[in-house]
Amino acid sequence: MAAAAGVSHKALLPVAGRPMLLRVLAALRAAPGVGRVVVSIEEPGRVLAGLETALDGVVLRPSATSPARSAAAVLEEFGAPLLVTTADHALLTPDMVEHLLRTAPPGASAVAALARRETILAEFPDTRRTWLRFRDGSFSGCNLFLLARPEASQVLAFWQRLEAQRKRPLTMARMLGIRPLIRYALGRLTLRQGLDALGARCRTPVAVTEMPFGAAAVDVDKPDDLALVEARLRAEAA
């Protein structure tokens, strides 16, 4: 996507004439529950040159070798709670952020935002997404996470171990637990059971919050996504 647009990083991809990263920053800055904003990206001084005015007040940090390592570095430096999202979340809104912060289950160290298939297709009937198919519903991730407590570092550590085995699917399966994966493959695993299994592996409680916004699950990964997002932004501006 970056190469096709002639930019160095996907975060700088123009979406309706504006770098995607700046759209995400605008949503975060307008969310009442968000204070300091940190951008983690490769060589920020070079990559973000020319955007200094738009990034005024934003803390810049060089990214690590993987998303999990980058998130872990920021969590270690700034502590919890820490809201994490991605630069390709071009339709992010303050309402989405507020909903996650308000409805995150208490007691969980880490909370992920998910949207139901029905919610997403009601807004974007032609979209193609990757579905997590549990016995009690199908969901899509929203690239929005709350690391609510310091123990969330254990979730990020487990994520890093999974990343290290990404070319060894059987090893990843053993790390996640063979029995839950079999139940998932057979369509017998509920979302709650999946979260309990993951929490046991991370040795700290994890949870999800369901988003009532179909757009929360739409990121810009491919040309079709870009067209979908720009069509939505044009409709909102009309």
Automatic annotation (TrEMBL):
SUPFAM superfamilies: Nucleotide-diphospho-sugar transferases (SSF53448). One of its GO terms (molecular function) is nucleotidyltransferase activity. InterPro entries: MobA-like_NTP_Trfase, Nucleotide-diphossugar_trans. Residues 9-119 form the MobA-like NTP transferase domain. It holds the Pfam family NTP_transf_3. Signal peptide: none annotated. Keywords: Magnesium. The keyword Magnesium applies. This is Nucleotidyltransferase family protein. It comes from Roseomonas indoligenes.
